[in-house]
Every structure is written in structure tokens, then in C-alpha cells.
Amino acid sequence: MPSSLPNSIHARDVEYLLHAVTNARRHEERGPIIIDRGEGIHVFDDEGRSYIEAMAGLWSVAVGFGEKRLADAAYRQLQKLPYYHSFSHKSNEPAVLLAEALVRISPERLTKVFFTNSGSEANDTAVKLVWYYNNARGLHAKKTFIARQGGYHGITIAAGSLTGLPTNHRDFDLPIIPVKHVTTPHFYRYAQPGESEEAFSTRLAEELEATILEAGPDTIAAFIGEPLMGAGGVIPPPAGYWEKVQAVCRRYDILIVADEVINGFGRLGTMFACEYYGIDPDILVLSKQITSSYQPLAALLISDAIYQAIADNSAKIGTLGHGFTAGAHPVATAVGLENLAIIEENGLVENARAVGEVMQRELRRRFADHPLVGEVRGIGLIAAIELVADKATKARFDPVGKLGLAIFDAGHEHGVIIRAIGDQIAFCPPLIITEAEMIEMLDRFERAFHQATAALAPA
Questions:
Q1: How far apart are CA 348 and CA 344, in angstroms?
Q2: What does the UniProt keyword field contain (predicted)?
Q3: pLDDT value at position 248?
């Protein structure tokens, strides 16, 4: 231990903690905001300042902060059975009940649940189970995944390879698994002049098919995508996109993995985004709002066809050689059960749809015509504003991210926490937010927006 420990918790943070998704040198200069407690849609720092959490933490705190029912559920389970594993025929009641509940509310073909601790682990597991499944079928060459540029699927080795964001690859030597990335389905950015959304979707489906045929259909295992892309900039797909993508995948025996780590549990105004977009997945990946992030938990739901092949192969080999020490954790799954009960009992999916309409309308009314705003987009309680240097040409700022960061910083001054993804400002408030709270959130953001753009926007 150092002989003179810094007195301030802020200084200790800078001295001892390496932060995720952070410029470490910038952090040394500015230090952290220490979040001390939370209540409803608000969090409070250690100096007593209040912030509306317009990102629900990291797209995840559905029921808000300080929900006593979740704390009580965790405490009860900690007293009864604080931990057990799911290896070698062992189980626990909360894991069984949550798996049953997830199958009940998920797309019809999904019949089995595998629990992990994070979305990254869940997507890693999806890769391994798809490989295992195809090997069990004797299709040993069917290994390559197709993902999208700008997609986000996590940061572990396999999940990070699936992710299509340069900063998650650069200097990590990723991608390392066989993966091909196709065009981001972002109509505003990548549609050709005069092209309709349907025509854009058709072109992307044709690109997908060409990619499959070039590689050889016998080598392509699965297509993975977020129904609505989150960390890549909150990008809803164009009209007809998922229908056309699914048709191509079914034509060539390619599995569809729907990554609903952000979308799931009501974010778009339906329990799952698969319902919103008419997606019939072979694998559904869930995390974040599954416990409102009060406990680390994620889940994969798989079709019966995949399960039967996996079960047969585990009998042939003698085991399914995959699992996590804390997978199907009794405390995490107990919290997940109670969280799901709160979402259902309090009508939070319906609230997301109703208050989401207010958010979408107000964002467009207030910002769509601003000269530095290229696009306002989103569905339900998830949205983004894309900032541009030139509205007519859609030219990006140089350097990218300077204005976004200025708005992010100004947000703290005005008591609202948003997320800057380069020069895209994301919103994803807790599902419990009321219409009055939404208006207050947008009022605070609007003040921050005008402060930052007045200082940095070109004349």
C-alpha cells in the first residue's frame, strides 16, 4: 500500500481504477463524477447534485433506481441460498422459474434458456452453441457469422469480433473469429439518392445474399443483429429490412440470432423488439433490463431444433462442456423474476409506448429543424439526435465527436445524463418515466444543447 493514501475518493478513483470506454489520460485530468445514490429516474452524486438519468445507466435500469422490491428479493434469496451453480444436474428455484417465465413471453419457437452473467458472455455463448450445433449436424465448415458495421454485441473475444465498431477492434487484434460485416441499415446515411426505404432494404438483402454466395452457404453459420441498433447510434431498420434478411437466411440454412440486450423487456413499446419487427429468431439474446442491472444476468433462448441437436451431441460426447461459475445464479435470477413482475404489473411496456410517443414527438419538434441536426430517430423510449456540420450535405464534423462531447458535458451542468456516440446524442430513460418527467428531461437537455452549440457551432 502507498504510504500516503489520497484523502479524496475522487483522487483515489484516478489513482487506482481503470475505467471502461474512457480516455484514460483525459480521466486523469478531469476525474470522475462519483454517483452516490439513485431514486426513480434520478441519480445523485456525492456532492448532492441531482441528474435525470436519460440513459437508464447503460440502456438498462427499466424500473428506475432505488426499487425496494428488487433489493428485498435479493436479500430474501441471499438469506435462503446465496449461491449455487447449474453444473452436473444441479439447479435452483429462481433460475427454473425465470427460465419458465422467459419462455412464456418470448417468440414461440424458443423453448430452452441458458443463463450467463453479461450480454458479452451471452453472445460468446451464442457463437459456441451455433458451432456446436453445426458440428453435431456434421456441418463442420459452417462457422462464419455475418454481422453489421456499427452493430454492438459486446467486448469479449467472440462478441467483440461480432461488434462492428472500429474502436472496439482497434489494437485489440479483433476480429479473431470468422465474421463478415455488411452495411449498416441506416437509411439516412447509406441510402442512395431517390432510393425508398423498401428499395434500400432490398439492396441490403441482395448484399447479404451476395456475401453468402461469395463465401459459400456451407460456410455461413448465422446472421446476428440488434433489431434496432443501439450503441452504434440508435438506428431503426428501414421498412422491410428484417423480412428480407430473414428470407435470405432461411434460403441458405443460416440461423438468425436476435441480440435484444438493449431492445428487450419493453424498450420499443413491445415486450421484445422481435415482436415489433416480425422477427422469428433461432436464438434470442437478453440482458440489461432483465434485472434492471441490479444484478449481473443475461440469457440465451434457443429453439427446440437447436436444443435437440445439442442434447444429442452432449449424450454422444458425455457432456455439454460449457458453463459459468455464476451462471443461473439464484440471487440474480430471483431479482430477474421480481423485475419482470414489476414490468408486467406496472404496465411498463405500455408506458414505454405511450411516453415514448411523447419523447419521439418532442425531440422532432424541438430539434429536427436545427441547422446542426441531420436526423432525429428512434422508437419507443430510445432515440438519438445526429449532429452534422452541414445539413444539406450531411457532412460530419471534423473532428468527429467534439460537439457531441461538449453537449454531453453541458448536460451534467444542467442535470441530465445523456450519451454521446461521436456526434450522435442518445436517449434511453427508465421505463418508469412519466410524461411530466420526460418534458423536464427534454427541457434540461435543450438548455444543454443550446449552450454547447452556441459555443462551438460554426457561424
A1: 7
A2: Aminotransferase, Pyridoxal phosphate, Transferase
A3: 98
Give the position of cell 434485472: 291
Task: Please report how many Cα atoms fall inside a 13 Å half-sphere around the Cα of residue 416, on the Cβ side.
Answer: 27
Q: In angstroms, rounded to a whole number, what is the distance separating the alpha carbons of residues 192 and 24? A: 39
Q: If you ran DSSP here, which 8-state letter would residue 65 be given? A: B
CA gap 408, 418 in Å, rounded: 6
Helix (H) / strand (E) containing 223: strand 220-225
Distance CA 176, CA 156 (A): 11
Strand (E) or helix (H) holding 377: strand 373-379
> Distance between the two ends of the chain, CA-based, in angstroms?
53
Q: Phi, psi (5° rounding) for residue 63?
A: -90, 10
Going across the sheet that includes 35-39, the strands are 35-39, 42-45, 50-53, 416-417
DSSP-based helix, strand, coil % in the chain, nearest 5: 45, 15, 40
Q: Where are the domains of the chain?
A: 33-63+347-456, 70-345
Check residue 197 and give its pLDDT.
98
Q: Please give the pLDDT value at position 7.
A: 61
Q: What is the 3-state secondary structure (H, E, C) of 21-49?
A: CCCHHHHHHHCCCCEEEEEECEEEECCCC
429-440 per-residue burial string, b: 16 or more CB within 10 A, e: under 16: bbbbbeeebbeb
Torsion of CA 434, 438, 440, 446, to 10 degrees: 180
pLDDT, position 196: 98
Which CATH fold topology does 33-63+347-456 show?
Answer: Aspartate Aminotransferase, domain 1 (3.90.1150)
Q: Decide which of 3.40.720.10, 3.90.650.10, 1.20.120.1460, 3.40.640.10 is the CATH code for 70-345.
A: 3.40.640.10
Per-residue HEC secondary structure of 130-157 comes to HHHHHHHCCCCCCCEEEEECCCCCCCCH
Q: Which pTM value belongs to this model?
A: 0.96
10-residue averages of pLDDT along the chain (459 residues): 57 94 94 96 97 98 98 98 97 98 97 98 98 98 98 98 97 97 98 98 98 98 98 98 98 98 98 98 98 98 98 97 97 98 98 98 98 98 98 96 96 98 98 98 98 73
